[in-house]
Design a protein that fits this description.
The protein is of the alpha/beta class and 504 residues long. It starts with 23 loop residues before the first strand and ends in a 30-residue tail after the last helix. β11 and β12 form a beta hairpin. The protein contains 13 helices and 21 strands. Strands 1, 2, 3, 4, 5, 6 and 16 form a seven-stranded mixed sheet that branches. A five-stranded antiparallel sheet has the order 17-18-21-20-19, sandwiched between helices. Strands 10-9-8-14 form a four-stranded parallel sheet, with helices on one face. The N terminus is likely disordered. Bound molecules: flavin-adenine dinucleotide and NADPH dihydro-nicotinamide-adenine-dinucleotide phosphate.
């Protein structure tokens, strides 16, 4: 074999000559959904990129690997536990379907071990992707020195390195709030701890009444825990309240207890390791002891020790989030923010990913495409799942005027439940909200039933394309499914005719 020394290495692309005075073109703070997507895209487009990700342990000492909230302590373990819990939900159905299944007994540790095994593979996958995409990874806590300089600290707070970058992306997400309630930090778990707990005792209090609270309460109950939810005011604030009440009603019928109009005042560890909870219910002081307490009362933007003010970045005084314009740009020209830390945006993984990707394409790929935050679909993975896209009934009435809004609805029972004595009558429900003044354009779709997320994804596409009620009526349903109910709506709420479905 002869070697052509003259052309050796000719196909190896030369490093572009850097004219920038900064070490990096793009420095991403936060290796979660938004940060990773943005860093990888920017690097693919030829930018010199670095990313810092560091997980501060929870007050209970829980920590995790690369990937951020969704992968480690959010969507992924939540959905896996929701899936695991459905086998408990279906246990009675199985018997009625003729399966002679073994004793109904759940092994928490086995589930957690398998969930964590899966997460470890994802953590590793993200490390490999960063190497493949040529993104320099720092497992350090970042903070700003000025609007082009980042200081990288180790776990003891020692500065390990100082770097400069032309652009900086803040994608630090948020962390659970403990509400400053006395004893909460020491006595309570949050979603940061729940998914890796080696054991979960029987009697559990879940504080809060939104996404995280209701989802966790749902799967804990189906995994044979004795669950009580403490509700301060309403269920699922920001969602259609008619739907939110139906979600909670289903959970109550399943055996989950609710303490309404109630807030915790203090937590204390008992001698036998349980948690004493002092709380106010309808104005009256009460005390109760639980084996474990899960705080799910919201999340705070993780901007406290980032020193963003040293770069002059404006934060919302109420939420601590970065105030951004329609281009995810902060008030400082070269500092950007995406994901949960960006003020006023939906706190959802696909939103963070898309915003981060589009931003990188605008900065380094010549694109002008902006993120569209309208009609973002979402699902609440409660025992009976709830998914929606577009306006709630309340918001549609406010936006378009009650007289211009028509609501088509149906209460139904999935075909598969009809031969099961254990299943409730018509607990599933769908409604479609249309604007009468705009050719019955669909402005909101809501669905409560099995696999709601799978049902809504396709309808979300049609909403983006300007779906009208006439198109829905023309659409042939797939029979027998639950999703077809959305194509067969002919009863309006205004008519007062029952929404209960009979027959096919
Ligand atoms: P994150 O994913 O939070 O990533 C931020 C990263 O930055 C973290 O790794 C953090 O440790 C790191 N960091 C913070 N400060 C620094 C610093 N100074 N230096 C270096 N690194 C730092 N969304 C859905 O779409 N579907 C769901 O089903 C869903 N379920 C959820 C369930 C739960 C229990 C929770 C908590 C959230 C859920 N979410 C869900 C929301 C979703 O997880 C978030 O919207 C998403 O993870 C936000 O991504 P992000 O990139 O903004 O931030
Ligand atoms: P939210 O901010 O949505 O809800 C907080 C809940 O806690 C509310 O019910 C609130 O009641 C209650 N609360 C607040 N303070 C107190 C207090 N001191 N005492 C008692 N109750 C209190 O937070 P979540 O943590 O549920 O969710 C955060 C975000 O994460 C969501 O907005 C969502 O975008 C994302 N997420 C998405 C999921 C999905 O896509 N399936 C799943 C989970 C999370 P009140 O209504 O009275 O204010």
């Amino acid at each position: 074999m002869t070697v052509d020394f003259a052309n050796l290495g000719a196909d190896v692309p030369e490093e572009p000559v850097r004219t920038s005075p900064y070490e990096y073109d793009y420095f991403v703070i936060g290796g979660g959904s938004g940060g990773l997507a943005s860093a990888k895209t920017a690097s693919e487009l030829g930018a010199k990129v670095a990313l810092a990700d560091f997980v501060k342990p929870s007050p209970q000492g829980t920590s995790w690997g690369l990937g951020g909230t969704c992968v480690n302590v959010g969507c992924i373990p939540k959905k896996l536990m929701h899936f695991a819990s459905m086998f408990g939900e279906y246990y009675n159905d199985q018997q009625e379907c003729g399966w002679e299944t073994a004793q109904k007994q759940h092994n928490w540790k086995r589930m957690v071990d398998n969930v964590q095994k899966h997460i470890s593979t994802l953590n590793w996958g993200y490390r490999v992707q960063l190497i493949d995409k040529n993104v320099t990874y720092f497992n350090y806590l970042a903070k700003l020195v000025d609007n082009h300089t980042i200081s990288l600290l180790n776990k003891d707070g020692q500065e390990m390195k100082r770097v400069t970058s032309e652009h900086i992306l803040v994608a630090v997400g948020g962390r659970p709030s403990f509400g400053g309630i006395p004893g909460a930090d020491e006595c309570c778990y949050s979603s940061d701890d729940l998914f890796s707990l080696k054991e979960m005792p029987k009697k559990v209090l879940v504080v809060g009444a939104s996404y995280i609270s209701l989802e966790c309460a749902g799967f804990l109950h189906a995994l044979q825990k004795d669950v009580t939810v403490m509700v301060r005011s309403i269920f699922l604030r920001g969602f259609d309240q008619d739907m939110a009440d139906k979600v909670a009603e289903y959970m109550a019928n399943e055996g989950i207890k609710f303490i309404r109009n109630s807030v915790p005042n203090a937590f204390k560890k008992t001698e036998d390791g349980k948690v004493e909870v002092k709380y106010t219910e309808n104005g009256e002081e009460r005390v109760e002891v639980y084996d474990a307490v899960l705080m799910a009362i919201g999340r705070n933007a993780d901007t406290k020790n980032l020193d963003l003010e040293k770069a002059g970045v404006q934060l919302s005084p109420r939420t601590g989030k970065v105030i951004v314009n329609d281009y995810e740009q902060s008030n400082v020209e070269n500092i950007w923010a995406v994901g949960d830390v960006a003020e006023g945006k939906p706190e959802l993984t696909p939103v963070a990913i898309q915003a981060g990707t589009y931003l990188a394409k605008r900065l380094f790929g010549g694109s002008s495409q902006r993120m569209d935050y309208i009609n973002v679909p979402t699902t609440v993975f409660t025992p009976l799942e709830y998914s929606c896209c577009g306006y709630s009934e309340e918001d549609a009435n406010k936006e378009f005027g009650e007289e211009n809004i028509e609501v088509y609805h149906t209460a139904f029972k999935p075909l598969e439940w009809n031969f099961l004595d254990s299943r409730e009558a018509s607990s599933c429900y769908a409604k479609v909200i249309v604007n009468l003044k705009d050719n019955e354009k669909v402005v909101g779709i809501h669905f409560l039933g099995p696999h709601a997320g799978e049902v809504m994804q396709g309808f979300a596409v049609s909403l983006k394309l300007g779906l009208t009620k006439a198109i829905l009526d023309e659409t042939i349903g797939i029979h027998p499914t639950c999703a077809e109910e959305i194509t067969k709506l002919d009863v309006t709420k205004r008519s007062g005719i029952t929404a209960e479905k009979t027959g096919c």
